[in-house]
Amino acid sequence: MSRLGELSHTGLIPPPPPAFVNFITPYCEKLGFTILPAHLHVILGFALFYQAIFLASSYISPVFKSYNSLRRRSKINWDIHLVSMVQSPLICLCAFLALGDPQLHSDRVFGYSAFGADVCAMACGYFLWDSYVSLKYVKLFGVGFALHGLASLAVFSFGFV
């Protein structure tokens, strides 16, 4: 039996539709990610959010004259850094708010809170996006950049086991 049914959802983001949870739960449980079905929509939503920022950057950033004179690699790097500058304070603020969660204080190793899991899902969404971008542009930025994104995604994914 999944632990998912026992968990209430008072997270950062509203819960996913029950049909979505019912569809993905067997797959997630086979992989050992018992908590993931309640938060996969957050991961995917934030990955799309970061991709939207990345795409918007190439339309917004030309306001800066220096952006227009950059080479392709530097423009892409600029756009990636813009996403990072949005993500960093957002995840720091949410993580700070999660620190005060009494559910996490009651069991510091195996504790669960929907809010804390949503914050972890936000981070996973960023590293999913980062992995996608780093693999897409591996010829420009190298294998190390891609491995960093994939390793970070793997580490944060363990929060859903």
Major sheet attributes: none
N-to-C order of helices and strands: HHHHHHHH
Radius of gyration from CA coordinates: 18 Å
Low-confidence stretches: 1-8
Distance between the termini: 14 Å
Tally of strands: 0
**What proportion strand?**
under 5%
Q: What class do helices, strands and sheet pairing give?
A: mainly alpha
What number of structural domains do the residues give?
1
Return the average pLDDT rounded to an integer: 91
Q: State the share of residues found in helices, binned by percent.
A: over 70%
Counting DSSP H or I runs of 4 or more residues, the number of helices is 8
* C-alpha geometry: elongated
What are its keywords?
single chain; 161 residues; mainly alpha; 8 helices; elongated; disordered N terminus
